[in-house]
Design brief:
Layout lengths: L1 E6 L3 H14 L3 E6 L2 H10 L4 E5 L7 H11 L4 E6 L4 H7 L6 E4 L4 H43 L2 H10 L12 E6 L4 H4 L1 H12 L4 E6 L2 E6 L6 H16 L4 E4 L9 H12 L10 E3 L14 H13 L3 H14 L8 H19 L4 H12 L4 H23 L3 H13 L7 H7 L4 H12 L3 H19 L4 H7 L5 H12 L3 H6 L4 H7 L1
Parallel strand pairs: 1-2, 1-3, 3-4, 4-5, 9-10
Antiparallel strand pairs: 6-8, 6-9, 7-8
Helix pairs in contact: 2-3, 5-6, 5-10, 5-21, 11-12, 11-13, 12-15, 13-14, 13-15, 14-15, 17-18
Length: about 525
Amino acid sequence: MVTILIADDEKLERNGIKLLLKREGAECEILEAENGKVALGILMDRKVDILFSDIKMPYMNGLELTEKARELYPDLEIIIFSGYNDFTYARDALRYGVVDYVLKPVNPEEFHKTFERVQGKIQSRIEDEEKQTRQGDYLKKYFLQNYLYKGNIEDYQQVQAYAQEMIDEKNPYIRMIIASSTNHFFETEEEHFVESLKEKLKRDFFYLNLNSNESLFLFREKYADYEKLANQLNQFFLQHYDTNCYFAVSREVSGIQEMPEEFQQLEQLLEEKFYQPKQHIFVHGKKVESTEDVIVEDSEILNNISEDIKFKDITHLWQDFHRLEQKYTTDKPYSEMYAKFVFSSILKEVYEAMSSSEEKGLSKKVDQLYHCKTIQDVRSITSTAIQELENYLQEQNEGFRSEITEVKSYIYHNYEKELNVEILAEKVYLSAGYLSAIFKEATGMNLNRFIREVRMNKAKELLENSTKKITQIAREVGFSNTSYFCRSFREFFGSTPESCRKGEMDDKETEAEV
């Protein structure tokens, strides 16, 4: 709503201006002052958008008021009222930044034109300010995201330049929570939930979208229970949007300088969602309460081990094997023959995964296992076999470089299709969790980030070298939501799709692009 101050020593004149403003139909708050001194007091007490002032007033005339008002508010729109004989004064007022003057008696048509012109200037200024705010916000998120992923000193300096509140030593952001979905939730619902979430949590936070499946929340509170807060986030998304998310909660950091390293830890922690699907909250530094902590049926553990071997997931094969080991120790009751049967079944799968030429070795190992006198020896034989499998797979695939190459190639040629970790893992016969882990190890970024980079770079290429509509380009690079595509593009490149197409980036956009 626009706030208008009418300064005139004649009440009848003030009422006349109010009547004309009412005819304009504008939503506005109207303040009145019977002289320049009173008007200045109002201006010193509160912000005003438009000042209507008579030239001749007691205590302080219109010119004096205009000069002091301009010092208080450089953007204040000022309109002077004057009689014909005061025209010279009105003309002199122009040097104080008066927008226009209106002769008395006021002509309604002239008043309408003047007021319409002033409203246009105010609206134009508001739009420019909003554009600058949005652009500043995009650049802030652009540099912050680069800094979190890369940790470069150059990106940190840009964060200092464009996001001063991020490095506020008196009130720093000290905790991070990454939210991860599997249904592109942050593409379809991002613009709706942020404000309602702030209202629900009754606390402020900084929100950064990472990709269609992941977002980051930064918090300042030092003594909050962040595990409880993550549970509140989980309930919010489940109840309001019927979507399941996973959350990784950081340790406390002293400021933004420590965030990149902690961010990498959170990404790694989130990989556990593939192996602990019932666990939705993962806290860095806290032991996960998983099925390792409860009595688990052998069939469940053996099934997981079979999957680990099938998908060549050595990391979780060892974890699942250790879970089984915990069940069969010397201080727990068990059937010796059944225990040997369980571990021999693992031996069989391990040797089958290595080579059919190992059948003789398998028979020898099984025979050796059944002649063991202690459970420690049984576990040792099986553990040795798993180590042989790990060595074998490393020799065969040199760290699975072929699978990584195949996944990257598929993304390059199918970026417009539905892409996620599960789909890509199926293409190369690996488990989703294991593919995610080795891809991050090989490329330095997670799959969601890589997919986004490929799509954004292709979108930029299409914008620069084709006349296709932005909506069409968004669809062609895998975005179903054009609005989300435009926001993602600005946050990824620091410039709008329109600026990219026209080649008319301003200095800040060019700097961001470089």
